[in-house]
Amino acid sequence: PFDPSLWTEVLPDSKLVFDYQPQAVTPDFSQFPYPLFDTLSLQPNRVAYLQPTQADSPWLTATARLQTYLGTAHYRPLDTRLVKNLEDLAAEERLVILGTPAQQPALAGLTLPFALENGKFVDDAGKAIPPESGLLMWATAADDSSPVLVVTGNGEAGVAKAVQYLVQPQDQQIATGHGVVVNQAAELPPPSPRQWPGYLPEDDDFLLTDLTDPNRQPLDEMTVRGSHSPAMEIDFKALPDDRLLRGSKMKLSYSYGPQINPLTSLVDVELDGVSITGERLTEVKGATRRTLEVDLPGDRVTPTSKLQVNFRLDPRERRSCSRVTDQQLWGTIHSDTSFSLNRTAITNLPDLDLFKTGYPFTAPQDLSTTAVILPDAPTSTDVTVLLELAERLGRLSMADSVQLAVYRQGDLPEADRDDKNLVAIGPQSRFPLPELLSEEGFALRGSGTRQWGNTQVQPLPDGEGLMKSVISPWNSQRVVL
Q1: Residue 352 burial by CB count (10 A; 0-12/13-18/19+): exposed, middle or buried?
Q2: Which helix (H) or strand (E) holds 417?
Q3: Is residue 307 helix, strand or coil?
Q4: Dihedrals φ, ψ of 323, to 5°?
Q5: What is the pLDDT of residues 91-144, one digit of tens each?
């Protein structure tokens, strides 16, 4: 089996061919986000938002929250754009119409479960639905080939309530049918700023079962078999502001089976592919519930770290012609494997590198300490950048709700300006926080001129954007992107 002359190769032009026929479906809110977003799609999901007559702050907030929720499907690509009317919709593209009938006149041309009379939705008795109640409806467009999600209400409070219902997965469990009236949506308290699903737990002492796999499922006992078994991998992702100190330990609880060669068999622990420690497996008859204490090097634990536990199992005897009999060999790590961390929370801000994890905007994970500011008259480009930002924040966070706030420049409350991390979007001429466009560091001087220190260049054309992070002038504990 280990003869190097034996080999096989899978060629890159190998392919799978599926013969399938699309079937008509009846949209049902019990299956949300399908068909707006299909988590089993083989292609990127294509979602379009219909532009309203006026993109005010409540509309921007509601749209950004819905887009953030769609971004939480971390492993599926999403293509998003804005359209001006229903005729711009491409075949099989999903459409979101969000806003009141006054903001979205196109609602009058759709066949909807609720009738629209004199610019207001009414119930079966012809009575106008209260403005504080939200409406969720499914419709179709583009010759019934594209599903349309309608998020509306007779008032802005109702629209906000309908969106909040959609972005809280626990609330979706009671929905069914193709039309829903949202009378009340629960207000969930924000999670702890250090409660990040998929990362190290808040407590300094925890077990293997407190960690999760890439599918966000709790880890349990794991067993491998054979001499060349793969490593057992554990996500060991520190929070962005975590600093592990000397004295952080892992107590590996493991067992292994009989018939091993005690001279050449061992178990070792690696951090990001670099071995930390290991020990020989000395019992020919096998051993149960052994403990290996591992000193964790805190300076090397990062938000992308992984621990690997390897069982290097060598059989006690080999048959003739190097025919290996090794499937009787096994190694197990137990669920009572424990961790004891000595750590502190400290980081240097501003630091754009931290934005790879969303920090500090995703602390807490429901984005309740983040606000986005756009110019007073946002263009379609400004809104498109907002949608891309919201999708990215959704991919970097996981919570039971989304509390992201979006304001136009003139609508920004002083309380949010002073207390939240801010993201300002806009070209230099219409930048919503002009006081932050200082001459320090990298400066944009107009006419495509760029300057860094004493170096100045003028690229033609200048088609790139700029991201910069600074400490908020209104709160030294917050940042502005």
Answers
A1: exposed
A2: helix 414-419
A3: strand
A4: -75, 115
A5: 879 999 999 999 999 999 999 999 999 889 998 888 999 999 999 999 988 787
